[in-house]
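Input record (one chain):
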Amino acid sequence: SAQVTLVAEADGERFHALRTDLAARHASALGFKLSYNDVLMRICAGALQEHPCVNATLAGDEIRLLDYVNIGLAIEIGQDLVVPNIKHAERKSLTELATELRELVQRVQSEQLSLDDITGGTFTITNLGLYGIDAFTPVINPPEAAILGVGQLRPKASVVDGEVMARMRLTLSLTFDHRIVDGGPAARFLARVKEL
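The corresponding structure, as predicted from the sequence alone:
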């Protein structure tokens, strides 16, 4: 593949507030707190529907736009990395995605993943923010066209209305296969993820 990475820093204030509000609102019904990854999956599912060129693959010499969104999350287990994916994420609510993601994580931890859990992905999210990483170049999970790398959410000096203040920020790194997606469409997709 011809891998290219675009990097954008996003204002994380509203993202942090949204996740905090949603986690509090749904905690009792779900039995757990929604995570940033849950919200990111919902955001990416919507953005991929709006930008189908990123939700694509190569079939021989032909680019095939996929009409379903199967989002994977890179999960470390011991010395290994696995990418189970949620099928038809575009059809699922935030709470459905979160519940299914917890089930996938449990299967990873108990080494009960099925072949179906780790095949058929159309897009991957990998989040290294937990490790204090700000930005990195994620590697595409073939045959997918793109992967989103997520850095840590942390306060940084930002200029707002001409004033310097601390605001939550995070870095998003989109690696895409230039054989499938051109730079402009990939940039528009990343800008939409950043906006959402």
